Amino acid sequence: MITDRKTVTELILANKVAKGITWHQVADAVGLSKEWTTAACLGQMTFNKSQAEIVGELFELPDEAIAWLQIAPYKGSLPTVVPTDPLIYRWYEVVNVYGSTIKELIHEEFGDGIMSAIDFSMDIQREENPNGDRVNVVLSGKFLPYKTY
Amino acid sequence: MITDRKTVTELILANKVAKGITWHQVADAVGLSKEWTTAACLGQMTFNKSQAEIVGELFELPDEAIAWLQIAPYKGSLPTVVPTDPLIYRWYEVVNVYGSTIKELIHEEFGDGIMSAIDFSMDIQREENPNGDRVNVVLSGKFLPYKTY
Amino acid sequence: MITDRKTVTELILANKVAKGITWHQVADAVGLSKEWTTAACLGQMTFNKSQAEIVGELFELPDEAIAWLQIAPYKGSLPTVVPTDPLIYRWYEVVNVYGSTIKELIHEEFGDGIMSAIDFSMDIQREENPNGDRVNVVLSGKFLPYKTY
Amino acid sequence: MITDRKTVTELILANKVAKGITWHQVADAVGLSKEWTTAACLGQMTFNKSQAEIVGELFELPDEAIAWLQIAPYKGSLPTVVPTDPLIYRWYEVVNVYGSTIKELIHEEFGDGIMSAIDFSMDIQREENPNGDRVNVVLSGKFLPYKTY
Amino acid sequence: MITDRKTVTELILANKVAKGITWHQVADAVGLSKEWTTAACLGQMTFNKSQAEIVGELFELPDEAIAWLQIAPYKGSLPTVVPTDPLIYRWYEVVNVYGSTIKELIHEEFGDGIMSAIDFSMDIQREENPNGDRVNVVLSGKFLPYKTY
Amino acid sequence: MITDRKTVTELILANKVAKGITWHQVADAVGLSKEWTTAACLGQMTFNKSQAEIVGELFELPDEAIAWLQIAPYKGSLPTVVPTDPLIYRWYEVVNVYGSTIKELIHEEFGDGIMSAIDFSMDIQREENPNGDRVNVVLSGKFLPYKTY
Amino acid sequence: MITDRKTVTELILANKVAKGITWHQVADAVGLSKEWTTAACLGQMTFNKSQAEIVGELFELPDEAIAWLQIAPYKGSLPTVVPTDPLIYRWYEVVNVYGSTIKELIHEEFGDGIMSAIDFSMDIQREENPNGDRVNVVLSGKFLPYKTY
Amino acid sequence: MITDRKTVTELILANKVAKGITWHQVADAVGLSKEWTTAACLGQMTFNKSQAEIVGELFELPDEAIAWLQIAPYKGSLPTVVPTDPLIYRWYEVVNVYGSTIKELIHEEFGDGIMSAIDFSMDIQREENPNGDRVNVVLSGKFLPYKTY
Amino acid sequence: MITDRKTVTELILANKVAKGITWHQVADAVGLSKEWTTAACLGQMTFNKSQAEIVGELFELPDEAIAWLQIAPYKGSLPTVVPTDPLIYRWYEVVNVYGSTIKELIHEEFGDGIMSAIDFSMDIQREENPNGDRVNVVLSGKFLPYKTY
Amino acid sequence: MITDRKTVTELILANKVAKGITWHQVADAVGLSKEWTTAACLGQMTFNKSQAEIVGELFELPDEAIAWLQIAPYKGSLPTVVPTDPLIYRWYEVVNVYGSTIKELIHEEFGDGIMSAIDFSMDIQREENPNGDRVNVVLSGKFLPYKTY
């Protein structure tokens, strides 16, 4: 019996390695962006029924796993408070070094409030560059103002 | 006597509030992006001599403070390991929720390596939107591959 | 010179104790709820110009402090990760004990998403009760769904 | 052999996903609020004998599991000190941002003491709203004053 | 100007050392138990007006400090999560070693619920004993049951 | 093969639930206080040979488990530094709120030293009370003075 | 089924002990430095296809494990934030004691920027010495300057 | 009065910035390596009398500060357990990613023991390189074997 | 006014550096061991009246400081949970590496109980040795058995 | 297959309990001190081939386990940063309370440097005493001076 969502993520990863499937292929099959689809496979988003069945077929998951894919998961994909993986740490470093800057500039433009991490999308692209290719990432989040009451 | 860089940041913030200067105005005076200039004023980047003098004049800083602006600072702008400020936390949350997704997609596109946080730039813009304006952020970092040796 | 928002909070608290002002009186003077007004005085929300002047007058704050009240503060009002104050700890305990329950029930009703802590209001009332009066608190937050993209 | 209460929670969740049972249905069968019933199923409250048997039948639990449901559990439903799940984090954020406000206002109204988290109830409701539906939550806790002795 | 309650505790301690006052004397003057009175002087309980004036006179506190003594303080008297002082650590050790025992035995006697730390009193006494005197402590707290709703 | 003491505790708890044994019954069978006996069953104290055999018979433990009961265990019964269970947290809260008070009063009475947590006993009793029954706990520990050398 | 990279590391270590293979032998077979090869076997670097097959043959790994060796792993080889192993701790101590020195001297020579840990190599050698042999380690990392933008 | 070594470090840094002294100049004046001299100025090593006087003269320190320079300091130069400064973090990352590799290779060469961080030296050099200059660091530590007894 | 014991420790250290007093001289003046006397000066033990006066005279302390020396202090002499100073860390390492060994051997010899850190003395001596002098430390603590009750 | 050293420690402990072997007997069989032998059995030291075979025979270990005994282990024998076991905690308390004293006295005698935890031995003995037997422990570590370079 599958008793948590994490087991489903492990099944997906094990089959992805064994079958050599790419995340682009999964996203194409599901018909959504590669960013959202990957996040959902890794247990951070919720599939609807037809999406879950497509994913289940690709990775040859049992029915029970397909049911779990449609449940809102307990989110959070990192094993430690400060990430140890160098790629992910660089993002944490950006938050740490630029955090106060981001805060100052958004408040200067919008006033008090936040940039949503829910009504949010992300797009990761390669930019070819003679000095070494670059990773370009666009983050887009709705501004949510604090209101007085 | 000024014994650390943090005192200079506090002087800048106190004068910014007292005089009503905006970060856009500082960036225009220095002639660089608002993102880099704000980070530098907040003690995360190093000004060269002429930039430091412009900043010093704007905020009426003493000579000693202008010297400190030209020293590479001990970086890190947040008071806690997990940020408590809601605006900055949303960025930490993006790293936490999407961290493994970002890792998977960059590796699928580029192989093993990282996106640099040093050869890096950031651009924050307002996107007008009838459902509520959005904050759009573009992050651009050079891809640095791990090499065998 | 006042170099951070925390100093303004301390000034407000010191004058509140010395003058015997209540938060109800501050809220009445500002014309907003006691919950929002108290949070703003304690450095968690941002006053506009006229509100800041009213607060400044009540607590006899210097002009510089009134300017700080109009700056979006670095939020987070507790000195430790797990609160040590028994009253505030009970709220942390509610999150700890009921957290997974809240998550399950909101997802069952609304699907995947969150209850906003920004587009949010709170109302604290006394309910008289012969077995001991009760504190009743109403929390209201907009539901923000995760979207596919 | 079942050696802890956590195993029972996992059994309940696995069967809930497999059978498609909702928490409303469990609460109706038990005859109590959905909030308390869900918390109890998740190992935060204690069922009496007849309640435990109803739950056991719904989720097809073995007798031993039904015995565990009647034992006061070691409470605490979150895996980390600061929750990583965005929905639950928003509640932690409320405690963090509004914690000192809540403390000030309850003390202003009631004097020194706490709002009980034991003699406590919670009600979660959807409020339809043209700007996006809202989650409304009512928390009610007995005020317990500190006494001199 | 006194900007927090901790400054008042420091004033009390400094004067206690300088004048050689004992906690028994303070408790006698206030007319309450030595346990509650000491806790209140150390910033963990709230004095009423007449009690505060007696304490203020004993320790020659300024008027402002006497006002602070009547404000419900942010409680928590230890500088670290795990106490380093050997006397206080032994109490933490008792909680650590006997915690699960206490839980089992209270639940066996009373069912699910807690022993209140608010409707609570403590009495510390010396017991003469030929093998070395003993510290005897009686803790008394109201049992608060969890209720279904 | 049983490779640690924790496995024995889990066996005891599982059999206790399955057979409906109470801690009072165990204590009566062993002929010691319910407090010490429960602590020993939960892996915090060491049984001698005859006590271990009585416990082994009650819970139908294998011979290997009975051998483990006679080994001094690695003590500490709580899974987190700050306990999350509300009942046990109240005790941690007492240490946190009253810790400095306890220290002051024991030093005032006895001088510098500690109250032993080893030469120590605990007694938990119900006190009937029309306003709600109370949990009364007597802690008794030998005072151990620091000596000069 | 192998569901994570860590299992492959454990298989490699178990077979290394059982067969008495040295890291030098693995490095010779793969044709790269012993430092990089060991790091890759321990799950910190990514093998290409032919390297993975050589490693797989040496340690008699199943096909699935050989596939995992070619996936960029989640890096980080230590079980605690501060390492407890005395050999590895000495390196952490060097960072702790000499960290600010390293920072000052690299900035004095190169200006603001970092020494890359990605475009990086390491060489560990024994230096014979009559007072006791020494471990000599050469670290070489590209300097990456912060740029203004 | 100077009550700790940290104040002396701050005096040195403030004067270094104000006077524009380089660490190379300090090392030349003292007649030792730039690595050891910088570490000593930053409060990690102990100067002898004549070295302390040279340093005192360079930075115009008071006599009391010169006395503090000759006291073995409490070492540790970083403000957080995991460094937030990107340059120093890269070193922590090396320990984290390569830690187990370093351990394996030193044990393979030397057997069980450690590389000393006390009988230790460090040399930091610039290597010119057409693809970008490199930071080369040589660490040399005596091997200390564990002995049986 | 002196408001805590830590200020007295700083005064002692500042004067010790300024006057060049050794701990041996203090111990000789007080007439006790150097270990206990140093610990007491550093705020870990309590002096009686005549001892405090001798110490006060040596370090030219004000009367108020001499009063503080006779108060049982809040003990704990290290600024971090894991010490960063290499000398002190080696002791923590001994506890970490040999902790379970110490536990096993004391229990094998004495049964369940502890070695007291209160009825305890320490003696630190230099042992001349041609291979390098050694630090020899003798720790002596009363064995305190757990008792059944 | 045995995939880590910890499994071997668990096998040794399980067999020690089952067979009633003492550490003294193991030390006698191996021909070394009880302190070193116990540490090695608990995975903190490395046996050579003949020692490992003796240990393997005593505890009836499989060949694979005997190979693991000859591998330098990842050291650190405690499950938490601050030990919860009262016996081991007393040692941590000694480091915490006496740490700064130990540092001051070793530096006063030897100058700047450390007491080695590698070139180190420990001897634990019972001292009979009419007031209660004492545990006497002798620690002996080579002094390693910091050198200038």
Q: What do these coordinates show?
A:
10 copies of one chain form a homodecamer. With 149 residues, the first copy, chain A, is α+β, with helices and mostly antiparallel strands. Chain A folds into 2 domains: 5-68, 434 Repressor (Amino-terminal Domain) (Orthogonal Bundle); 86-145, Cyanate Lyase, Chain: A, domain 2 (2-Layer Sandwich), CATH 3.30.1160.10. Chain A is 49% helix and 18% strand. Chain A has 6 helices and 2 strands. The first copy, chain A, has helices at 5-19, 23-30, 34-41, 49-59, 63-68, 86-110; strands at residues 113-127, 134-145. In chain A, strands 1-2 form a two-stranded antiparallel ribbon. The longest helix of chain A has 25 residues, at 86-110. The radius of gyration of chain A is 18 Å and the shape is globular. Chain A starts with a helix and ends with a strand. The mean pLDDT of chain A is 95. At the A-B interface, helix 3, helix 6, strand 1 and strand 2 of A face helix 3, helix 6, strand 1 and strand 2 of B. Strand 2 of chain G pairs antiparallel with strand 2 of chain H, so a sheet runs across the interface.
Layout of secondary structure:
Ten copies of one chain form a homodecamer.
Chain A: H1 5-19, H2 23-30, H3 34-41, H4 49-59, H5 63-68, H6 86-110, E1 113-127, E2 134-145
Antiparallel strand pairs in A: 1-2
Helix pairs in contact in A: 2-3
